[in-house]
Amino acid sequence: MRTLIKGGTVLSATGASAADVLVEDEKVAAVAAPGVFETADEVLDASGKYVLPGGIDAHTHMEMPFGGTHSVDTFTTGTEAAAWGGTTTIIDFAVQSKGTTLTATLDKWHEKADGNCAIDYGFHMIVSDVNDTTLKDMETCVDAGVSSFKMFMAYPGVFYSTDGEILRAMQKATETGSTIMMHAENGIAIDELVAQALASGRTGPVEHGLTRPSILEGEATARAIALAKVTGAPLYIVHLSAAEALAAVAAARTEGQNVFAETCPQYLYLSIEDLARPDFEGAKYVASPPLREKRHQADLWRGLRTNNLSVVSTDHCPFCFKDQKELGRGDFSRIPNGMPGVEHRMDLLHQGVVAGEISLARWVEACSTTPARMFGLYPRKGVIAPGSDADIVIYDPAARQTLSAETHHMNVDYSAYEGFEITGKVETVLSRGKVVVSPSGFGGGRGHGKFLARDLCQYLS
Ligand code: URP
Ligand code: ZN
Ligand code: ZN
Ligand code: ZN
């Protein structure tokens, strides 16, 4: 089966050029000057459109257990929504709960995902119980294609690890060539502020933001960087939201340390003003780290331009407003933490291109090429080149759309971006050569997506 994508502008992390792309079965066969290939079994006209490597969302939580409930997108609904938005790979987090092993956790996440995904997927491992077995099992995970481990400096009593536990896991990461991903917020201090707010009757959603000040993200980020320096471990700061944290990352990178960071669209476009929406609507915007004051946004865009922020992921972790966010009415600390977003990352970051905040090449790099390199998937993913998987998006940069829960495909009853007007829209999506999204609708389905056993990370500076 040969598919020809004709007449488009092919994008990469280094630029754009007029080219045609020939796909043979699941792979890119060739990229050539317009008109070199005359025909194929199927021809897709990309005139006036961008042709870019499928998005890689390196931070999602499908069916994630949290506080007695779980995030509402399944691996099927979540990966279908991702595909609609031009994302063709997700890396989701398997969650070790205390008292279980990493290997049993990995088995459990394979049971949830295998045969159910519409696009390709990999796993990171959340480590929440550091002991000799866990450390040994990190080796098994790396061998099984799970080469990155997330740890938490937040959520005492749940996912939290002490500095000593983090140090031990980092030593193992150094030994195995794997990466430590860090949720960097000072959870011990935050829990005190939360208790004080509740005791004084401050219970609404905005308190979630006020009790998690950005300086405590900056402090934890700097501490994680120090622990990584002592152990030699590569460090990837997840969902960075604060100027103070970015400054710590930038300083470490200037010194040449292997420190990287991602941010998420919600920190670029939303703010603590959304958390302060009346009538409990702010609960829709509760995630950790919290949405910040708007002053942080300019710093984050600058971080994206200068590569101190290397990746944009979504931290997609949807909970319904009606029956789940509701659990925290009268006590903000019980609002399930997380926001939906897997469908709209490519569109939202394209607004950064439209606004002149980032270049087209940077859009592709932060949303596809760098996550592929960072997480051991390159050049199979993240680039349109001979031999790569034919994960390809045809994007209409001139189309207009309005984001809404009425039209999105995520299995959640609200949109964090309700009413946002977007310039640009996904037209067609190929996942390993199969057209899964086209102007005539969804052509993919559960089971098409395959597990990606990832290599070790390829660090970029
Ligand atoms: O609030 C969030 N971000 N929920 C998902 C879990 C995490 O910490 O990434
Ligand atoms: Zn986190
Ligand atoms: Zn997350
Ligand atoms: Zn629901």
Automatic annotation (TrEMBL):
<dbReference type="GO" id="GO:0005829">
    <property type="term" value="C:cytosol"/>
</dbReference>
<dbReference type="GO" id="GO:0016812">
    <property type="term" value="F:hydrolase activity, acting on carbon-nitrogen (but not peptide) bonds, in cyclic amides"/>
</dbReference>
<dbReference type="InterPro" id="IPR006680">
    <property type="entry name" value="Amidohydro-rel"/>
</dbReference>
<keyword id="KW-0479">Metal-binding</keyword>
<comment type="similarity">
    <text>Belongs to the metallo-dependent hydrolases superfamily. Hydantoinase/dihydropyrimidinase family.</text>
</comment>
<protein>
    <submittedName>
        <fullName>Dihydropyrimidinase</fullName>
    </submittedName>
</protein>
<dbReference type="InterPro" id="IPR032466">
    <property type="entry name" value="Metal_Hydrolase"/>
</dbReference>
<feature type="modified residue" description="N6-carboxylysine">
    <location>
        <position position="150"/>
    </location>
</feature>
<dbReference type="GO" id="GO:0046872">
    <property type="term" value="F:metal ion binding"/>
</dbReference>
<dbReference type="InterPro" id="IPR011778">
    <property type="entry name" value="Hydantoinase/dihydroPyrase"/>
</dbReference>
<dbReference type="InterPro" id="IPR011059">
    <property type="entry name" value="Metal-dep_hydrolase_composite"/>
</dbReference>
<feature type="domain" description="Amidohydrolase-related">
    <location>
        <begin position="50"/>
        <end position="436"/>
    </location>
</feature>
<dbReference type="Pfam" id="PF01979">
    <property type="entry name" value="Amidohydro_1"/>
</dbReference>
<dbReference type="InterPro" id="IPR050378">
    <property type="entry name" value="Metallo-dep_Hydrolases_sf"/>
</dbReference>
<keyword id="KW-0378">Hydrolase</keyword>
